[in-house]
Amino acid sequence: ERLLEYPSAINDLKTHNNLREKLLASKYDQDIRTILHQIEVDENQHKLQLLEKDNQLKEIQINRQYWIIFSGILLFLIAALFIRRSWLKRAKEKNELIKEINNHREQLLKLEGSKDQLSALFKDTSDAILCVDSGWMVAFHNKQFETVFNIDNELQVGKKLETLLPDFFNEVSQMSMNSNDMPNPGLIEAFEVKIGTTTLKLNIRVHTINLLDDYAVFSITDQESGQANQQISQLLVQQSAVQNMINNLGNNKHFSDEHMNVIKGEFNSGLFLQNLSSGDDSAKRMALVSLMQGCIQIWNTHTKSNRIELAEATGYWKISIDDGRLRTRAMDRYLDIKHLPKNPRSRQVVKTAHYILSECDLSMDLREKLNQLLDHFLSMP
Fold first, then answer.
1. Is 206 helix (H, G, I), strand (E, B) or coil?
2. List of residues 6+ apart from 145 with CB closer than 8 A
3. Which three-class secondary structure state does DSSP give residue 180?
4. CA-CA distance, 305 to 205, in Å (whole number)?
5. 265 exposed, middle or buried (CB, 10 Å; 0-12, 13-18, 19+)?
6. For residue 363, which phi and psi values (nearest 5 degrees)?
7. CA-CA distance, 306 to 81, in Å (whole number)?
8. Does this model's pTM top 0.70?
């Protein structure tokens, strides 16, 4: 029986082994699948982690780009605001500069307004009249003068006398001069002038007046006419004639109320507009010298030229020839307190400062310096 059961047992054992192998194979396969699944899960998690890190990096990059763009926009806005403020500041400074320049030009026109008053004074005078300013530039001449010297109407105003009439200039420049380089009152007799083929002998009477500026007035008549040129002397000296002239000029647009009050006050004292700068205040005299020194220094610094060119450019100062060299003796007296005239022509210095400030493109430092010197002098009583 046992031997008969052996084959059955062998079969059972084989069956059992087969089942066992199948179970082991199934378990192995299951384990392999589990391991592969885990590996796949791990890989997916790793990919997810990588993707998450990549997304984080991209987010950081995007944030960084946003920050860069924001910073750029912010910097652009700040720069635009700065540029706008700078532009507005420059525009304001430019407008203030233009306003300041126009103000200086207006002041120059006011200070030079006396040339119109000269025309009002002498236009109806029968004598030939020539007026030159402190720089020996022609300020006015009437019809009679144009006829005598055969010159064009109004075309010669503003020219140097030595250029217009060199012989005439040489004759009058030989006269004695005052401290302001203007001729002292006097008479030149038998001055010869040729009109075509005719030679005339003229009497030239010289007067000096101050009408908001210094002027030399030359009244000219034919020597044979005798006392004809006394009209100007009477006009400038006799109080009755002066009073009549004031009454006639009272409604003239060229004369302000302030000018008329000054004229009346000076005429009533028997003088013709004596110099308004008394020269008694040493502090103001020193300020005037400082202003003149500042004008020349700033002119030299800006233009790289000297005071000869300044005198020529402004036309306010006489240029003379001494030993073959050009000199500005009148201007030079205003550079040293020891040589400053007793009655200085302060308006000439002020006009020079106004000219430089209005016609020269100065740097802010030079402009501020000259403005301070000018304001200091003008603010003094």
1. strand
2. 128, 129, 130, 151, 220
3. coil
4. 38
5. exposed
6. -70, 165
7. 44
8. no
pLDDT tens sequence across 42-63: 888 988 888 889 888 998 999 8
pLDDT tens digits, residue range 201-251? 788 888 877 665 677 888 887 765 544 444 455 444 443 344 444 444 444
- Alpha-carbon distance 142 to 321, whole Å? 29
Buried b / exposed e across 199-208, counting CB within 10 Å, b at 16+? Answer: ebebbbbbbb
Mean pLDDT computed over 93-98: 86
Half-sphere exposure of residue 374, counting CA atoms within 13 Å on the CB side? 22
Distance CA 288, CA 282 (A): 10
Residue with tokens 């302030």: 258
Identify which of 227, 188, 228, 226 has the alpha carbon closest to the alpha carbon of residue 207. Answer: 188
Q: Which of 291, 359, 352, 299 lies closest to 101 in space, CA to CA?
A: 359
Distances (CA, A) of 23 to 9, 31, 36: 20, 12, 19
CB 270 within 8 A of CB 353: no
Q: Using DSSP, state whether 362 is helix, strand or coil.
A: coil
- Which H or E run contains 285? helix 282-303
Identity of the amino acid at 79:
A
Q: What pLDDT, in 10s, does the model give residues 329-350? A: 889 999 999 989 888 888 889 9
